[in-house]
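[Meeting: bench + compute handoff]

Bench side (C.D.) handed over the final construct sequence. Compute side (W.E.) agreed to return the predicted structure before the next meeting so the bench team could plan truncations. Sequence as handed over:
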Amino acid sequence: MDLLLWRHAEAEDGPIDLQRRLTTRGERQAQAMAAWILARQPKKLRVLVSPAVRCQQTAAALGLPFATVRGLGPEASVSNLVAATEWPRASGAVLVVGHQPALGRTAALLLAGEEADWTIKKGGLWWFSKRVRTGETQTILRCSLSPDLLAAK
């Protein structure tokens, strides 16, 4: 199984959190990362997205169908994320477009074995794979990518 954690791109400030929209910079971040993901898209990719407008807009940049999952909203926990993605039992790949701190805490759990306050940059992507080697189940970090590394100079 592959698990891709994509934090929503830069968003405007606003009084109603779920209604905050991407900034112009955020739209560019989402488009750049979406192009990168599409060029490397794993087979059988399911896309799960927070109901927040900024996450919906980030995911829309992919141009792929996605499911909105209430449990992946700004108040999501690691257990919400793991349950929604069925990590590590599901087959294929799951891309989650969501929020801090759940994304960073999930990344910490997968790599270090316990939750910690790790940060995934806005618009950033962390890609994990689960594999079995010589009878041992391993979690591999395939990629950690910030959108500013994709920007044209």
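W.E. noted at the follow-up: Helices lie at 24-39, 53-60, 78-85, 102-112. C.D. will use this when planning the next construct.
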